[in-house]
Amino acid sequence: MSLFGSRKDDGSMAPGQPADGAARVIMAGADSAPGGGKVPSIGQSIVFKGDLSGDEDLQIDGQVEGGVQLANHELTIGATGRVQAQLFARSVVVIGHVVGNITATERVEIQVDGVVEGDVHSPRLVVADGATLNGRIEMSQPRPAAQSDSAAGSRSADD
Q1: What whole-number distance in Å separates Cα of residue 1 and Cα of residue 148?
Q2: Residues sharing a CB contact under 8 Å with residue 25, sequence separation 6 or more, in sequence order
Q3: Residue 159 lies in a domain
């Protein structure tokens, strides 16, 4: 069975179609290893449309439209990266161009040539001299669930 292909009546795969109907992305540098290997990347010539999620760090050097969710990992938009998406990650570094909102649980960094056109939600924000940010900034710390539940309970008891 090939990565791309659809089943023919005889059980073999036809090229060009995903085997299970889902989109597949093959990333350069996929031999990443925790603790020092290469970070997987979406190359300059790749155009991806749809929602992208994963459990490892990722660098985008191509074009992505849709949504990107890497909850416990770092997302880097490289110098040639062009992203039109809602981004959610532990940490986001923008060197290229992002149109869409960014939510990071730890930090967002917009480097010198980076451009963000959208809202940024993160407890820490670094904007380099020369970077562009057009949008709202919210830098509140996420509250633990136990604190929010007890706060909500005390408010309703006071009402």
Answers
A1: 49
A2: 42, 46, 48, 52
A3: no
The range of the structural domain enclosing residue 56 comes to: 31-148
- Which amino acid does the sequence have at 129? D
**CB-CB contact of 135 with 117 (8 Å):** yes
> Which helix (H) or strand (E) element contains residue 5?
strand 4-7
Whether residue 10 is predicted with pLDDT greater than 80 in this model: the reply is no
Q: Is the same domain home to 95 and 141?
A: yes
Dihedral of CA atoms 77, 32, 66, 129 in degrees, nearest 10, equals -10
Token reading at 25:
């992305």
Q: Locate 152 and state its tokens.
A: 């909500």
Per the structure, the count of domains in the chain is: 2
Calculate the alpha carbon distances from 157 to 145, 146, 148, 149, 152 in Å: 18, 17, 14, 12, 9
Q: Cβ distance 88 to 73 under 8 Å? A: no
Structure pTM?
A: 0.69
User: What average pLDDT does this structure show over 133-137?
Assistant: 97
Per DSSP, the three-state class of 12 is: coil
In a domain, residue 158? The reply is no
Instruction: Dump pLDDT digits (tens) for 43-65.
Output: 999 999 999 999 999 999 999 99
Closest CA to 51 of 86, 19, 82: 86
Report residue 12: phi and psi, to 5°: -80, 170
